[in-house]
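Continuing the series of single-chain predictions for the mutant panel. This is the parent chain; the variants come on the following pages.
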Amino acid sequence: MGLAFRPGDIVISTRSKCGTTWMQMICALLIFGDPDLPAPLSTLSPWLDWLGIPEREVLGRLGAQTHRRFIKTHTPLDGLPLDPRATYIVMGRHPLDMAVSLYHHVDNLDRARIASLIGDAVPARPRPPRPPLRDWLLAWIDREVAPGQQLDSLPGVLWHLAGAWARRVEPNIVLVHYDDLVADLEGAMRRLAERLGISPPADRWPALVEAATFDRMRGRADQLAPNPDGVLRSASAFFRRGRSGAGRELLTDAELDHYRARVAQLVPADLFAWLHRDAIG
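Parent structure:
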């Protein structure tokens, strides 16, 4: 990666459907101090590893920015240059919730449009129907793949988080749990502002927090959804639910126990407890 870092840069490193856009919006609100952003979110916070735009163009956009930069990437920390001038924010989410969101997200993608943008052959016929969500989720839990080959698999998600967890004591590594944003958005935003050295005026906080709520973001989907070159069928459908527990609602107690045992084989106990809040039900 040829990015020339600046003091104060923010790198948001997440797996798909783990709160990336939410964190980008929070950073934008803290940096600009205004719910009315000066440009679409994807312009303010470029997606570093989106294959539909040449890297040199993305780097050129970042180089031209004069505000404090906050950059989106789905690359784990061990695939990024770790610069002491930058702060790295890694979002964690219950993997079952992430997986359910991913399943629905795939239905909202225009595959032909993506293929044309990244130079792949456009599919000649529709893809065969996928299994029902519950069957797909059970297969996702048990899929044995190399984490680096399928980063949105269960091993890939946990590998991404484990790399950040191992570095969490470093002063420029910040882990944020999706459920903390759900439970106490203002508190999570204030903690992040402190870590980033940002102090919005006291009278701006209510408006900033309101602008970061799920309902307000869904209402501004055309400005906020990551839709480079029209790859989403619906920008508003990108903001589907915004709550936790969807994965657990689908599985039996025995299936949840099986999931729990599978994850326990892949991550240390302290990360397991943080990620799941030490509970499945």
